[in-house]
Each structure stands twice: as structure tokens, then as C-alpha cells.
């Protein structure tokens, strides 16, 4: 997938990576944010919209408190 920030963000390059992948230990990971994703066609846009809706309405949400000034990194 392609992620591209709008001109107001002053980012000069796009980022390409799959939504679903595996990490260095072979564990499945999901890397997705619905902002700035650029679907290649209508079907991919529908898939992304349905993915966003499913994530937003899921009952299986894990909430992790993050202290101010910190960022979760795995």
C-alpha cells in the first residue's frame, strides 16, 4: 500500500508497505493508519474502508495506557 501525506505536512516522499506482514521473529503484524493511505483503485478503497470500519467497531480491542511523552515501540 502507498501512504502519501498532503503538501501541508512537508513530507517529500511516499511510504510503501503492506498492511499485513511479519516481524523479524516471524510474528504476524498489522501496520495500518487510515490517514494518508492511497488506494490504487476503487476495490482497494472499499477494502480499506471495510477494514477501518471493522477495526473501529470491533469488541476485541486492547487498550494500552501510554504516559504523556512516551511512545509504544515493539
TrEMBL record:
<dbReference type="GO" id="GO:0005506">
    <property type="term" value="F:iron ion binding"/>
</dbReference>
<keyword id="KW-0479">Metal-binding</keyword>
<dbReference type="InterPro" id="IPR015038">
    <property type="entry name" value="GlaH"/>
</dbReference>
<keyword id="KW-0223">Dioxygenase</keyword>
<protein>
    <submittedName>
        <fullName>Protein CsiD</fullName>
    </submittedName>
</protein>
<keyword id="KW-0408">Iron</keyword>
<dbReference type="GO" id="GO:0050498">
    <property type="term" value="F:oxidoreductase activity, acting on paired donors, with incorporation or reduction of molecular oxygen, with 2-oxoglutarate as one donor, and the other dehydrogenated"/>
</dbReference>
<dbReference type="GO" id="GO:0016706">
    <property type="term" value="F:2-oxoglutarate-dependent dioxygenase activity"/>
</dbReference>
<dbReference type="InterPro" id="IPR042098">
    <property type="entry name" value="TauD-like_sf"/>
</dbReference>
<dbReference type="Pfam" id="PF08943">
    <property type="entry name" value="CsiD"/>
</dbReference>
<keyword id="KW-0560">Oxidoreductase</keyword>
